[in-house]
Design a protein that fits this description.
38% helix; alpha+beta; 250 residues; globular
Length: 250
């Protein structure tokens, strides 16, 4: 996932926009590249994938990274993928949306163990998360042959009940593996760990307020902050339940 270092820019230069590869299971940043000023994340992600070992791993990227060139790079690296599908892939999204709009199909997937649900209560609201995955995608592979190793599609529906007011969010995914529904669930939820890391960089280290203008220095400082976040996460303190900022002062 990418993040702009806002304090690194001024009237004379654009700020660094850095794409990070993050191991959510171990809370560790494993690589980063800066996006060229006249380019975007789509061209930076393949460069980052070539820098790291993704063998036997599952790569998750938000919808901007759902590109056939990026899929090709993942497969070349002998990894798998779970990629969000939104409006930037219009026909692919339409086909997947139509497929999952069949209520009978959803019930059939549920009976086959290809559905998973969690219910959580937090911040005065109840959030229900439903996950469906289907491996019946031969029809989709034939109509979209450029997506290498396409073996499944998934849908998630988040229903939030806050004081009786319901809101829903539906998302769709393409996947390259045939595993249990829990694996798909972990991929979808696990991707938010990189968003959490970006949030912590701002909260703990006030990264957006740091005005280091030298681009190389700013790039290196970001790598150091990520490493420090990892240590703050894994180091055991005598006092439990300390926030990151208190851990720094402990």
């Amino acid at each position: 996932d990418g993040k702009t270092m806002r304090g690194n820019g001024n009237k004379d230069q654009r700020p660094n926009h850095i794409v990070t590869a993050y191991d959510g299971a171990n809370h560790l940043s494993i690589g980063q590249v800066v996006v060229d000023e006249k380019s975007n994340e789509i061209t930076a992600i393949p460069r980052l994938l070539r820098m790291i070992d993704i063998r036997k791993g599952i790569v998750t990227i938000d919808a901007m990274g759902t590109q056939t060139d990026i899929v090709d790079e993942i497969i070349k690296g002998k990894g798998d993928y779970c990629l969000a599908v939104k409006g930037n892939q219009t026909t692919l999204l339409e086909d997947i949306t139509l497929y999952f709009s069949d209520a009978k199909l959803l019930e059939k997937l549920k009976q086959k163990g290809q559905h998973y649900q969690t219910v959580e209560k937090a911040r005065s609201q109840i959030e229900k998360r439903d996950y469906w995955v289907s491996y019946d995608v031969k029809w989709l592979s034939e109509s979209h042959p450029k997506w290498q190793k396409l073996r499944g599609i998934g849908m998630t529906k988040n229903t939030i009940d806050k004081d009786g007011v319901l809101t829903e969010e539906v998302r769709y995914f393409i996947i390259s593996f045939k595993k249990d529904i829990e694996t798909f669930t972990r991929c979808v939820r696990g991707h938010w760990s990189v968003e959490s890391m970006h949030w912590l960089l701002d909260v703990v280290y006030r990264e957006d307020h740091n005005q280091t203008l030298d681009k190389r220095a700013a790039f290196n400082l970001k790598a150091i902050r990520k490493l420090c976040l990892y240590f703050l996460k894994v180091i055991q303190f005598p006092k439990k339940d300390l926030c990151y900022r208190r851990k720094q002062r402990y």
